[in-house]
């Protein structure tokens, strides 16, 4: 096998395929599929992934690859195949599919440099060149371009005076530490110790240590354990008793933390019934997807833990996905507490180096479990026994950039290869998953009761319109305020939740709660402050913002929104004695601050935890007995067909923070639309009723799970160009669709201009279009030239979650 097929790192459509390269003799046997290599490509040297090896090629004059970047493959065969699948299902480039599966540290960074050619003599070159190089033989490309013109450089390069050099470098160095080990056997060590003069006590102490230790010891550790200085060790090294070496260490982000070991709990009946089919599936190597629908506080995590335990007993591995915001130390502790060092953790809070280290532990099979956010689904395990996705309804499992994959789909794809089960867990399953469970595509496992039969907290819905009518203009209803005061007296804790998404963007009447909706789409219009217009982002309808409420004629109609800071100020005015911890993007941007604030709250250093989405889930604190939702509706009016679903999920999750242990919990939800079914049913905490209601709405409006959707977004600096391309694409796609499918567009995107580029879109709704991806790909190929040279951008999102 002396030919390698290589996908090179040039994200462009005509290059999106493997190219054949010759493997130089000295590298035959070294180069393997899944390795990264440096190859010549045109005048450049770039990075590529080896996708396969072969004996013959259809091409005659093959270039030779230059060198490998890895000594072992970074992608195994399963992941290489998964890359092909990603390419087909999300319509991304092969290179993007491979890149997304490896840790960011491995993503090559090219440095482009301008170099004097070896034959050139600087003194004889034109003055301009001399001034660029300024007595050095290489300068950075940016610098050279700044000092000169491209055409001039081109001319000089043609004459052979200068050349371009590409330097590819890995971003991260492995972390190394000095370690000390013994060169002698135990007998020899004893002998040396006897022979040392009586007064060299410290050297004897060190030898003693190595008489009882077999492995190398980190220098720092040795010094502090024995209370000796480096000179003592150096002395022994000189005597050839000890030696020094470098060991690779992992940057363990949880290094200084001790995890108390936990034992499996005796399961409740619900848990027992849910885990049985999962264990059977593990036992029989069956590929099945389970939907574990368990109310908040029903003990889903224990089911995960004991399923993983079984997998580990069978010598296999487990992936656990958790949404980024609930990947808290509390969460990590639960897994590390049960499985200790067998657990690697991957989340965005880690430095690039830390992520790389965790990834390598997986690759070297030094760990058996990974707990991580979305991208951990690509963990390079080779013998998966289970994949668990907690809070499966979370939209953050969908990646919004290329490749636009959904972790749930990837999980199922991987589970097929590994013949293992997938467990999707949630207290508020996504409509899509629950519908699949209803149809029997997924197996439904239900845990309808809380631990120890604790009841779900009582929820009271407060109509803020009435508060206003009764003269209360504050952001706290009288009921909520009373209950807060009560908890402050009892020294119990309070969570106040402010939904910040959708800030200021819709128009609402404060007297009657009326929100201005689109005529055609049943979705709220978005307010544009600059021209006082309200617009529909689905169909393009627009109208002027009303001065009076069309419903009740009140003048109190305006765009809506409040910030956490404002709430904090108001709290300090009306309840100066209350200690408040505010958690939002501003207070948690520093590394570790998220954790610190939660710890403070858990230790009882504050009475009220005030925050946005990031406090909605995962918290399991015994002393929280009151949850207040300040404005339940802000998300309801986002231009998104999933807004009711998201509202219901969020309200249910937040409510679930109260009364999880001995103390009973209460929830107050403040709203301007108490009659909306997602608010009402969140109050009743009735998922099934909500599901039934929402399915009707989706069916009427032809949205998922009844229809699939795909979104094409076109952008260009010129408005007319964006429109005309979108028009052509829409017509083309429409001609390829069956009669039952719907193509909505062209219409301006919800965000019609970004960075001075105009954006237009076309939304496709369909039930069955097996050829759609092919047509979309063909359309992209067709515009390839304009995409490269004409500044056109076309993005295709198959199954989009954000329709902006
Ligand atoms: N079998 C058991 N016996 C005793 N306590 C248990 C058992 N299973 C779980 N618990 C405890 O019950 C509490 C709630 O469990 P857990 O947090 O796993 O619920 P959950 O279903 O994940 O809830 P949420 O969806 O709200 O995160 C935890 O404190 C957990 O330690
Ligand atoms: Zn009104
Ligand atoms: Zn509309």
TrEMBL record:
The record's annotation in InterPro entries points to: DEAD/DEAH_box_helicase_dom (IPR011545), Helicase_ATP-bd (IPR014001), Helicase_C-like (IPR001650), P-loop_NTPase (IPR027417), PriA (IPR005259), PriA_3primeBD (IPR041222), PriA_3primeBD_sf (IPR042115), PriA_C (IPR041236)
Task: Show the GO MF annotations.
Answer: hydrolase activity
Required co-factors: Zn(2+)
Boundaries of every Helicase ATP-binding domain copy: 281-447
Per UniProt, the cofactor note for this protein states: Binds 2 zinc ions per subunit.
Enzyme class comes to isomerase
Give any Pfam family that matches. Answer: PriA_3primeBD
- Which positions does UniProt annotate for Zn(2+) 2 binding? 518, 521, 536, 539
Can you tell which superkingdom this protein's organism belongs to?
Bacteria
Kindly state which reaction or reactions the protein catalyses.
ATP + H2O = ADP + phosphate + H(+); Couples ATP hydrolysis with the unwinding of duplex DNA by translocating in the 3'-5' direction
Q: Which CDD domains match?
A: DEXHc_priA, SF2_C_priA
The UniProt keywords, alphabetically, are: ATP-binding, DNA replication, DNA-binding, Helicase, Hydrolase, Isomerase, Metal-binding, Nucleotide-binding, Primosome, Zinc
- Report the EC code(s) recorded for this entry: 5.6.2.4
Which positions fall inside the Helicase C-terminal domain?
544-712
Q: Which residues form a coiled coil?
A: none
Enumerate the residues binding Zn(2+) 1: 509, 512, 549, 552
Give the quaternary structure.
Component of the replication restart primosome.
Instruction: Provide the function of this protein.
Output: Initiates the restart of stalled replication forks, which reloads the replicative helicase on sites other than the origin of replication. Recognizes and binds to abandoned replication forks and remodels them to uncover a helicase loading site. Promotes assembly of the primosome at these replication forks.
Homology family: Belongs to the helicase family. PriA subfamily.
Q: Can you say what this protein is called?
A: Replication restart protein PriA
Organismal lineage: Bacteria, Bacillati, Bacillota, Bacilli, Bacillales
């Amino acid at each position: 096998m002396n030919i390698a097929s290589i996908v090179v790192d040039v994200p462009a459509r005509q290059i999106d395929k493997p190219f054949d390269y010759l493997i130089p003799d000295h590298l035959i046997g070294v180069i393997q599929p899944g390795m990264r290599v440096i190859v010549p490509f045109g005048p450049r040297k770039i990075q590529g992934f080896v996708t396969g090896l072969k004996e013959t090629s259809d091409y005659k004059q093959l270039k030779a690859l230059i060198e490998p970047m890895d000594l072992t493959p970074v992608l195994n065969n399963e992941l290489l195949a998964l890359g092909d699948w990603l390419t087909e299902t999300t319509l991304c480039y092969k290179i993007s599919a491979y890149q997304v599966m490896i840790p960011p540290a491995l993503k090559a960074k090219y440095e482009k440099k301008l170099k004097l050619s070896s034959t050139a003599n600087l003194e004889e070159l034109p003055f301009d060149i001399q001034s660029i190089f300024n007595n050095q033989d290489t300068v950075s490309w940016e610098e050279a371009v700044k000092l000169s013109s491209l055409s001039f450089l081109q001319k000089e390069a043609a004459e052979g005076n200068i050349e371009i050099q590409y330097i590819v470098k890995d971003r991260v160095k492995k972390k190394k530490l000095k370690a000390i080990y013994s060169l002698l056997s135990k007998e020899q060590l004893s002998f040396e110790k006897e022979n040392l003069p009586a007064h060299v006590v410290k050297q004897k102490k060190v030898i003693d240590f190595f008489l009882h230790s077999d492995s190398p010891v980190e220098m720092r550790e040795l010094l502090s354990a024995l209370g000796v200085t480096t000179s003592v060790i150096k002395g022994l090294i000189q005597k050839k008793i000890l030696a020094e070496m470098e060991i690779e260490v992992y940057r363990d982000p949880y290094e200084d933390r001790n995890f108390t070991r936990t034992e499996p709990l005796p399961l409740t009946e619900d848990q027992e019934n849910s885990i049985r089919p999962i264990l059977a599936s593990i036992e029989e190597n069956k590929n099945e997807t389970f939907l574990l629908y368990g109310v908040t506080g029903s003990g889903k995590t224990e089911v995960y833990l004991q399923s993983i335990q079984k997998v580990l007993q069978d010598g296999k591995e487990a992936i656990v996905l958790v949404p980024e915001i609930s990947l808290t130390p509390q969460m990590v502790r639960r897994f590390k507490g049960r499985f200790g060092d067998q657990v690697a953790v991957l989340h965005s809070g880690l430095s690039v180096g830390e992520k790389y280290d965790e990834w390598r532990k997986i690759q070297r099979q030094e760990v058996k479990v990974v707990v991580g956010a979305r991208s951990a689904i690509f963990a390079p395990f080779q013998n998966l026994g289970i994949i668990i996705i907690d809070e499966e309804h979370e939209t953050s499992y969908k990646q919004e950039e290329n490749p636009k994959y959904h972790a749930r789909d990837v999980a199922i794809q991987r589970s097929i290869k590994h013949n293992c089960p997938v467990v999707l867990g949630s207290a508020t399953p996504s409509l899509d998953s629950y519908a699949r469970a209803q149809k029997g595509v997924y197996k439904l496992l239900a845990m309808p009761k809380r631990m120890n039969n604790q009841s779900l907290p009582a929820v009271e819905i407060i109509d803020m319109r009435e508060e206003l009518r009764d003269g209360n203009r504050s952001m706290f209803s009288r009921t909520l305020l009373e209950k807060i005061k009560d908890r402050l007296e009892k020294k119990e804790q309070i969570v106040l939740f402010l939904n910040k998404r959708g800030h200021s963007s819709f128009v609402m009447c404060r007297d009657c709660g009326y929100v201005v909706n689109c005529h055609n789409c049943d979705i709220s219009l978005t307010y544009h402050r600059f021209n006082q217009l309200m617009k529909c982002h689905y169909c393009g309808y627009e109208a002027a913002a009303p001065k009076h409420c069309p419903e009740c004629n009140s003048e109190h109609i305006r765009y809506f929104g409040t910030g956490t800071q404002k709430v904090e100020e108001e709290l300090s005015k009306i309840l100066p004695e209350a200690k408040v911890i505010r958690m939002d993007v501003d207070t948690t941007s520093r590394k570790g601050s998220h954790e610190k604030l939660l710890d403070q709250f858990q230790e009882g250093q504050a009475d009220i935890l005030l925050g946005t989405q990031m406090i909605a889930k995962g918290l399991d604190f015994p002393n929280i007995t009151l949850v207040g939702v300040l404005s339940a509706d802000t998300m309801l009016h986002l231009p998104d067909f999933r807004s009711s679903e998201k509202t219901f999920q969020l309200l249910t999750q937040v409510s679930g923070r109260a009364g999880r242990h001995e103390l009973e919990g209460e929830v107050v939800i403040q709203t301007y639309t108490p009659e909306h079914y997602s608010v009402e049913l969140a109050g009743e905490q009735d998922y099934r009723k909500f599901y039934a209601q929402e399915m009707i709405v989706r069916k009427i409006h032809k949205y998922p799970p009844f229809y699939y959707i795909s979104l094409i977004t076109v952008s260009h600096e010129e408005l007319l160009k964006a429109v005309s391309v979108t028009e052509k694409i829409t017509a083309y796609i429409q001609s390829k669709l069956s009669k039952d499918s719907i193509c909505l567009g062209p219409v301006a995107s919800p965000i019609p201009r970004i960075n001075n580029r105009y954006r237009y879109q076309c939304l496709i709704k369909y039930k069955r279009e097996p050829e759609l991806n092919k047509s979309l790909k063909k359309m992209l190929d067709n515009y390839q030239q304009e995409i490269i040279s004409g500044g056109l951008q076309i993005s295709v999102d198959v199954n989009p979650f954000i329709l902006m």
